[in-house]
Amino acid sequence: MSEPRTQIRDYVEWTIEKTPRIRVVGRYAAYTVGYLVAILVDASGPATVLNRRLPDDPDDSVDMYRTQARRAGSSVWIPVQASRRRAWLDVYDDPDSCETLDLQVLQIRGATPLRRWRHPKTEDSRWRVRLACRDGGTENDGLELEGAWLELAWLATIGGWPEPELPEGPRTSPV
């Protein structure tokens, strides 16, 4: 019998908070409805961050369903893909036109949760991260990443980025 593949959340170095029960119930209800709609539309089912597994081959893509990148001064968001070793921008949704992101030369300049939850570092919490070059270079300087906390933590593990602190201010939410 083969060994079960590692979950992404077990591999990342950032804190992944436990999702409150009420959000889990609400999320599964929404996923159930989304799944039923997806079956009726194209039978592929909804994309989810939860319980995602790492591929056996380190060069195979880990689906980054909810992470996108935007360059400074641009209004266009570009899908981000990653493997265990590298990340790339999927510019034209074509494997031959992908642009590699050198995550090791980038550093976090700022990070902001897109919603003010009491638990902002759960797997599916949405964040925006602003990046800058460590060595003063200009390639990918001012790049912004927006996506699920778990996916950003995955990119941070590849790039060796420290976990960002929560911004000051109230954390309000019914959950």
Model description:
- The protein is globular.
- The N and C termini lie far apart (41 Å).
- The chain is an alpha+beta fold and 175 residues long.
- The protein has one domain (1-175).
- It is 21% helix and 20% strand.
- It has a seven-stranded antiparallel sheet with strand order 4-3-2-1-7-6-5, covered by helices on one side.
Gyration radius (Cα, Å) is 17 Å
Helix segment count? Answer: 3
The amount of beta strand, in percent, is: 15-25%
Write out the strand line-up for the largest beta sheet, numbering strands in chain order: 4-3-2-1-7-6-5
The topology string of helices and strands comes to HHEEEEEEEH
Q: What separation lies between the terminal Cα atoms?
A: 41 Å
Total domains, how many? 1
Arithmetic mean pLDDT:
77
How many runs of DSSP E, i.e. beta strands? 7
Spans of at least 5 consecutive residues whose pLDDT stays below 50 are: 42-47
Structural class: alpha+beta
Care to give the gist of this entry?
This protein has 175 residues and is of the alpha+beta class. 21% of the residues lie in helices and 20% in strands. It has helices at residues 8-11, 21-41, 149-159, and strands at 68-70, 78-82, 87-89, 99-101, 106-113, 126-133, 144-148.
List the helices and strands and how they pair.
Blueprint (H helix, E strand, L loop, with lengths): L7 H4 L9 H21 L26 E3 L7 E5 L4 E3 L9 E3 L4 E8 L12 E8 L10 E5 H11 L16
Antiparallel strand pairs: 1-2, 1-7, 2-3, 3-4, 5-6, 6-7
